[in-house]
Design goal:
The complex is a heterodimer of chains A (about 300) and B (about 260). Chain A has about 300 residues and is mainly α. Chain A is about 70% helix and about 0% strand. Chain A contains 13 helices and one strand. In chain A, helix 4 crosses helix 7 (about 140-165). Chain A is elongated. The two termini of chain A are about 40 Å apart. With about 260 residues, chain B is α/β, with parallel strands linked by helices. Chain B contains eight helices and nine strands. In chain B, strands 5-6-7-3-8-9 form a six-stranded mixed sheet, with helices on both faces. In chain B, strands 2-1-4 form a three-stranded antiparallel sheet, covered by helices on one side. The chains are: A mainly alpha (about 300), B alpha/beta (about 260). Chains A and B meet through helix 1, strand 1, helix 3 and helix 6 of A and strand 1, strand 2, helix 2, strand 4 and strand 5 of B.
């Protein structure tokens, strides 16, 4: 049996020195960014399993189960159809306003869900975080993956709506996956950002519904994008309003799926803005989240 | 064992741990009171800081099994979490060889999912590859014994008794090899049969692994598994030494 006492610390060596000599590393040390990315990659199976587990458990106590994944976007579209298509007859001078509206609503919903679930990704999993050791970014990533999957189902529903409203299938449909990738990258970064921010400042959760509604009304989802110009915005003001990332992704989606939908910018400008937003928010969000890695257990 | 042959695996150097607790309904919760609090810049009553561990130092060596004892709320579990790197140290430092793993009964799994899905998820969360998970899954379920009374592994975990889910959690965590193993009250769960099995498993893990820390209120399981004991009281070390001596002191204290 090894004899033990508090006082003996190997012949007067300071504890720090002793740790260094024996190659012990401080627990709670922040890994470097490439190292962290590698760790995260090693946990890809966990991320996938966690996201599908969350999906099953969220729908597990409903009778229809996974059918809701399809039903939710369909009902969503029906609501807008009834209000704007049947009651208000809001098409006005625009043909196929319903499809225009649905593309916007679905694309917006994608970001909205990621922001909501990202904000809760850390705070609602504190038990798991305080019990097991894994790269924390797995949690917001798995939350984002759930929404990416949901959005892919919604896209199928959306194509149906677009076809039913007599839009032709064109070669431009092929850019939908590209837009999806860029938008997902943007959303993942945003989700990571919100996860750290939401775990530090819990009050932000109360503000999110208002911020998202503000964003919704500012992203030309419910009205033609030409309204900005008609409202008398011009010059840099118009530029700022139209650089809104969600507006950019929604416009690209409309550009892909709809013929002759009004656009605020040329596709080239939209593509540049879309890539810039994805990279800036995607990478920025990841770096921001990584820097807080060791503090998430504190609560 | 001579002093210079012993290899340290965990070193705590004046470690302080402070964590924040967000609590609902702490203090007054009327809008007016909250507003007054903001205006006068007093700290929120909803967020309290708990100074759980106050300047703890110790060195743990390879091959040791160390029991952590102390009354409820003395900071034992918090200290383990910090050693595992799950809670950040506010001041001082904790050094460890490799990645210490916490084996707790508190590991939150998904209650809506069946036991076998939780086994997969838990193993993946510990960093196993899918192939490893597949190979170990049945062994884990068998070890936990949840299927002894029918096919429980395909039922959601919320239908389990607290003993059953604790057993499953322990079995998942014990499926992996650890350099430094931290066990939090795990042995106190389950029936006598499972306790025996889990103690045998801990001994096995100890043989393979470097160092074991055990937090438990069961005097017996500490005496059985640990030859060294650290007594923590109100976040400070009261005694550190051979189990018999520390236990005697602790019992004298607890009786008072």
């Amino acid at each position: 049996m090894p004899e033990t006492a508090v006082a003996e610390t190997d012949a007067g060596l300071s504890l720090k020195e002793l740790a260094r000599r024996n190659g012990l590393s401080a627990s709670g040390r922040l890994p470097s960014l490439p190292e962290y990315t590698r760790q995260l990659w090693a946990y890809r199976h966990f991320i996938r399993a966690h996201s599908s587990a969350k999906m099953t458990s969220a729908l597990g106590n409903t009778k229809l189960g996974a059918v809701w994944q399809v039903l939710t976007p369909v009902i969503n579209a029906a609501v807008y159809y009834v209000i704007f298509g049947v009651i208000l007859q809001a098409h006005g001078d625009m043909d196929n306003f319903i499809a225009y509206l649905c593309v916007g609503v679905f694309t917006f919903q994608f970001t909205q869900s990621v922001v909501q679930s990202g904000t809760n990704a850390i705070t609602s999993n504190l038990g798991l975080i305080r019990a097991l050791h894994f790269p924390r970014a797995s949690l917001p990533l798995s939350a984002a993956l759930v929404e990416i999957r949901n959005f892919m189902v919604a896209l199928v529903v959306l194509s149906g709506i677009v076809l039913v409203t007599r839009e032709p299938i064109t070669a431009e449909w092929l850019i939908v996956p590209v837009v999806l990738v860029l938008h997902s990258f943007f959303n993942v970064g945003l989700g990571l950002f919100m996860a750290r921010y939401g775990s530090k400042v819990r009050d932000v959760k109360q503000l999110i519904p208002f911020i998202m509604r503000f964003w919704l009304y500012g992203s030309a989802v419910l009205y033609p994008v030409t309204r900005f110009e008609n409202a008398g915005l011009s010059g840099w003001q118009l530029q700022v309003v139209e650089a809104n990332p969600l507006l950019v992704y929604i416009e690209l989606m409309r550009h892909a799926l709809l013929e002759g939908a009004p656009r605020a910018n040329t596709p080239t400008v939209l593509w540049i803005e879309a890539v810039a937003w994805s990279l800036a928010v995607g990478i920025g969000g990841f770096v921001y989240f990584w820097r807080g890695e060791k503090g998430y257990g504190r609560g | 064992m001579a002093d210079n042959e012993r290899i340290p695996t965990v070193i705590a150097d004046q470690a302080h741990i402070i964590y924040r607790v967000h609590q609902a309904g702490g203090g007054s919760s009327s809008p007016l009171a909250s507003f007054k609090r903001l205006a006068t810049r007093t700290k929120s009553a909803n967020i309290r800081e708990v100074h759980a561990v106050k300047g703890v130092s110790f060195v743990a060596y390879k091959g040791e099994a160390i029991g952590l004892i102390g009354t409820n709320g003395s900071g034992k579990s918090t200290l383990l979490r910090a050693v595992a790197g799950l809670l950040p140290v506010s001041r001082g430092a904790i050094y460890a060889a490799g990645q210490p793993s916490l084996l707790g009964v508190n590991a939150a799994l998904m209650n809506d999912l069946p036991g076998d899905r939780n086994v997969e998820l838990g193993c993946l969360a510990m960093g196993m590859s899918p192939a490893e998970v597949k190979a170990k899954k049945n062994g884990i379920i068998e070890f936990s014994g949840i299927n002894d009374k029918g096919d429980f592994s395909s039922l959601p975990m919320r239908t389990y008794s607290s003993g059953m889910s604790a057993r499953l959690r322990f079995s998942i965590a014990a499926a992996k090899q650890h350099d430094v193993l931290l066990i939090d009250e795990a042995l106190a769960t389950g029936d006598a049969k499972f306790r025996k099995r889990s103690e045998a498993r801990v001994r096995e893990l100890r043989a393979q692994a470097g160092t074991v820390f055990l937090v438990s209120h069961s005097e017996q399981s500490i005496r059985d598994t640990c030859e060294r004991c650290i007594w923590l009281e109100a976040g400070e070390i009261r005694a550190d030494g051979p189990t018999n001596e520390v236990m005697k002191e602790y019992e004298a204290f607890a009786r008072r």
